[in-house]
Amino acid sequence: MIIKLGDFQFPKPPEDFSITSPQKTAHIELPEIEDVIQDFGPGPKQFSLVGIFSKKMGGIGLALSLDEIKNKGERILFSIDRLSWLVHFQNFNFKVLRGGHCQYTIELIETKRPEPFIFVREPDTLGPDIMDFYIAQLKAQAKAFRLHNALAQIYNSIGKIDEYLANVRSILRDIRTLAELPMNLLNRLKFELSMILLHCEIIMAETKRLLTVPARTYSAFESMLSYVYQYVQGIFQEAGFMWTRANSLPNKEKTHIVTNQDTLQSISKQYYNTYSRWTDIAYANKIIDPTTIKPGDSLIIPI
User: How much is the pTM?
Assistant: First the structure.
């Protein structure tokens, strides 16, 4: 449960405060939480507080989970541009000051995996930047998979996801929403996303299987496999979201029946007023050799 306390900002943290540099300590005052605490009524209280740090590189959201308002917290969650990390910490001190202010001191220990379901996006929002983050985390661990043959499939699929994501990024480079894509690129996008989903399923199935192997044969990889499973879940969610959105868009294509005189170049000239877009027609129809089209064939013409 996350409670938004309104439009305010935390005071600026110390210059050396960074989520990427462990063992840093920040002293921050959080305004106006007295009323929020009271909203929960009597009995044990468990809640989250949300605010914004002021940083040169952009806003960093902070969610702090407390249990029964005691001097020990369970977790702290940093979120940068919709990407979230769980952070373990120690030496947590918390007290409510006069006027409803809260003062706490946190010493960060280490960052852990993100929570891929922490954000809710608009239907047209594009997500390759989020998948880029997950891939970066996976690649940081991927070299270790070379140490054991049984993990080769996972390692290979991570590489494939990275490859297909690069293609997705290229397709979406100059647009804001999927609705702006011409049909040929939309079809290509759906193919790339389907391959990402396929390799995500391979990785999730394989990691789940290895984690249940009798006698813990892969116990040395247990934490890494769990770590990878969680990241791939995030990619799977993002790719699935985009694939569903791409398939919900209206069909923007025409059909052409091939005649005796037709070539892909002449068909391209007919519909696009240029010979150069014959490759779009070939891609949409999965044509490898353009000389194989014959009279009577029905071709999809992306518009």
Answer: 0.46
Q: Are residues 132 and 244 in the same domain?
A: yes
What order of strands is seen across the sheet that includes strand 46-53? Answer: 3-4, 46-53, 60-67, 73-80, 83-96, 102-111, 25-30
Quick: pLDDT tens for 51-75.
322 222 222 333 333 332 233 333 3
CB 74: neighbour CB atoms within 10 A?
Answer: 11
Residue 276 sits in the same domain as residue 214: no
CA-based nearest residue to 132, from 167, 156, 175, 157: 167
**Measured CA angle at 201 (ends 198, 206), to 5 deg:** 130
CA proximity to 128, closest of 193, 195, 194, 204: 193
Distance, first Cα to last Cα, the chain: 45
Q: What is the pLDDT of residues 214-265, one digit of tens each?
A: 655 666 677 777 778 888 887 888 888 888 878 777 666 678 889 988 999 9
Higher pLDDT, 181 or 145: 181
Q: Could you give the number of structural domains in the chain?
A: 3
CATH number at residue 278: 3.10.350.10
Q: Is residue 83 part of a domain?
A: yes
The one-letter amino acid code at 91 reads N
